[in-house]
Design a protein that fits this description.
The chain is mainly beta. Strands 1-2-3-4-5-6-7-8 form an 8-stranded antiparallel barrel.
């Protein structure tokens, strides 16, 4: 009987503690700008091969407005160099520098849908292996609209690894993203 009474008191105390803990008021949301909701991240890529190389640097800063929505802005720098073999051997070099903004919707935790309009300045050249003069591409502004979806995998603290599939829906002739869906990986701090 004493053991049953002690067990009943212990269970009642645990239930009461659990119920009281649930009744504690949550901290009031911060009004105005909250720097703890800022995040930094972006993409960085290097690729080297016998016929091609690439460098991609695109840092971003964003703000997590709530559980479902984040937005931000960033800068882009992409450099590509590769050998071509049509009409003789040549080495093509292309560069892109620009700005972007993005909006992310998290319909469920860790999964996201993103839209990212960009405006990049594009330049380039083609240098032939024979004695033909180097051809310079006229510099031009190239708009892109990247739409994509992916996952934000938590890595501890506030960090997350971003894995996404994206596509440039505008498909301008000198888009840095090509005409296929592409995979990107980035990190947010």
């Amino acid at each position: 009987m004493k053991k049953s009474l002690a067990l009943l008191i212990a269970i009642t105390a645990m239930l009461f503690q659990t119920i009281c803990a649930q009744d504690e008021p949550e901290a009031a949301p911060t009004k105005g700008f909250d720097k703890s909701k800022l995040f930094f991240g972006g993409n960085f890529g290097l690729g080297f091969g016998s016929n091609s190389s690439s460098i991609i640097v695109s840092p971003q800063v964003g703000y997590r407005f709530n559980t479902y929505f984040a937005a931000g802005a960033g800068v882009n720098f992409n450099y590509y160099s590769y050998k071509t073999f049509y009409n003789g051997e040549a080495k093509d070099r292309f560069g892109y520098g620009g700005i972007n903004i993005f909006g992310r919707v998290y319909p469920i935790p860790y999964l996201l849908v993103q839209a990212q309009p960009e405006l990049n300045y594009s330049w380039g050249s083609r240098k032939y292996a024979d004695n033909r003069p180097t051809e310079k591409l006229k510099g031009m502004l190239v708009p892109s609209l990247l739409l994509g979806a992916g996952a934000a995998i938590p890595t501890g603290g506030n960090g997350a690894l971003l894995l996404m599939l994206q596509y440039d829906v505008l498909q301008e002739s000198r888009t840095p993203y090509g005409n296929k869906v592409f995979f990107s990986m980035g990190y947010n701090f």
